[in-house]
Design a protein that fits this description.
2 domains; 4-stranded mixed sheet; 3-stranded antiparallel sheet
Amino acid sequence: MSYFRELPNLEFQNFLESSTGSQDYILLKNIFVRGKLRDDLQNIFTVFNKYEIEDDERPDQVADKLYGDPFLDWVVLVTSNIINFQDEWPLTQQQLYDYVENKYGVEKMNGTKYFKTKEVRRKRDNALILPPDLTVDKTFSIPDPDTVGNILYPATGVTNYEWETEKNDKKRLIYVLRPEYLQQFIKDMRDISQYGFNSEFVDNKTIRVTNSKVLSP
C-alpha cells in the first residue's frame, strides 16, 4: 500500500497540447497534505516499540520485517517523525565514509574535532568524580582524587570521523508503531486525507483547482 495512494487528489485544468477544451482536467496527487503523529502520543510507550536500524537497512525492509509489507515504509517514516529522509535516516558505513572523506578530506578525517572527558571515580568508594563525555578544552585538568598533589588530565580527543559516526548512530534508534495499532493508524490517515465540502469539491478525495493560463504576447 503506497503512501501516494493515500493522498487526496487535485484536478488542474489541462493546458497541454493534448487538451481537448476548458473542461479537460489533469488529476494530480496533493503532495502538500501530510499526516503527522499527534504530539501526545509520542510518549505513550504502549503504542510504540524502540527499533534500531541496522546498517544498510532501508525503510521498506523495516516495514516488511515489522508489518509484512514493504509498501508500508511510509508508516515507518511518519510514525518516526522522519520528514527529510536524506538527512534523518542513517547512512550506511560506506556512505558515511564517503561523506566524511568528501567533507573533511583524507588528511583531516582523523583530525581532532573536539575533546571530551573520560570518567573518573575515586578508588576507595567508587564515587563518581567526573562524568564522561563532557566537552572540554585540550588542557582540562582536575585534582587526582586518590593522590594528594597529583593532577589528572582526563581529556581525550574525538576525531572528525568518530564525531560523524556518533551523529549517524544516534539516527539508528527510532520508535515504530506496534503492529496491533497499524490498521487504526491507516484508517486515521485516510480520514484526515479527505476533503470537506467546499466550492471546489468534486468528492471527498478530490477538489478542483483553478489554474490560470499565462499567455505571452
